[in-house]
Amino acid sequence: MLLACSLLASGAAAAVTELKVEVYDGPKECEDADKLKKGEHVSMHYTGTIDKDSAAGTPGKQFDSSRGRGKTFDFQLGAGRVIQGWDKGLEGLCVGAKAVLTIPPDMGYGARGAGGDIPGGAALSFDVEVVSHSDEGPPEPNLFKDLDTDKDAKLTQEEVLAFFKQQGKEELPEGLWEKEDKDKDGFISWEEFGGPKGKSKDEL
């Protein structure tokens, strides 16, 4: 019995050694313009579970889902912002496709795992849906506009410090003001500001 259990365990571990992508709904073939490409910004829905053949973790256990939050997961494909199994497995899928990605541990979270729900060595299964893709990402946030509370198109030290206090800091980061206030007039203008500020001063 012990030998049989050992063989079953080793068989399960060996069952998920490579990335598999199975489209079960939506288009399997499409024009190149509708295929996901490296570098594009994509919007996805997904549900992640421990794969049924995983040697670690509880097979079938769900650990995350964008569907439950009612909001897509948006990221740049191929930029290393998601696990390797996503970066490689999603490339070439068509917009509107629904697929299951079976991801071996070395293309997921490896020996370290992730949090309490994904142990080290777990193979993963993601039920994904390609919602949309674009060459351009979402518009750049306008942090300058948010910091400029008195709407005079320039930032004071007090306005910038108020932002950092919201982050739990009591002082400005060392050297930040000196770096940003390039003309040393005691204010940071939109032109001087080095953070996200939109595309035009007209947006203020």
TrEMBL record:
Region listing for Disordered, in residue ranges: 172-204
Which reactions are catalysed by this chain?
Answer: [protein]-peptidylproline (omega=180) = [protein]-peptidylproline (omega=0)
Q: Where is the PPIase FKBP-type domain?
A: 39-134
Q: Provide ranges: composition bias, Basic and acidic residues.
A: 172-186
The answer on whether this UniProt entry bears the keyword Signal reads: yes
Keyword check for Calcium: yes
Q: Which residue numbers delimit the EF-hand domain? A: 142-170
Q: Which GO terms describe its cellular component?
A: endoplasmic reticulum
Per its UniProt entry, which superkingdom is the organism in?
Eukaryota
Offer one Pfam family short name for this entry: FKBP_C
Molecular-function annotations in GO: calcium ion binding; peptidyl-prolyl cis-trans isomerase activity
Q: Give the enzyme's EC designation.
A: 5.2.1.8
SUPFAM superfamilies attached to this UniProt entry: EF-hand, FKBP-like
List keywords of the entry alphabetically: Calcium, Endoplasmic reticulum, Glycoprotein, Isomerase, Repeat, Rotamase, Signal
Matching entries from PANTHER family are given as: PEPTIDYL-PROLYL CIS-TRANS ISOMERASE FKBP7/14, PEPTIDYLPROLYL ISOMERASE
The molecule here is called peptidylprolyl isomerase
- Source lineage: Eukaryota, Haptista, Haptophyta, Prymnesiophyceae, Isochrysidales
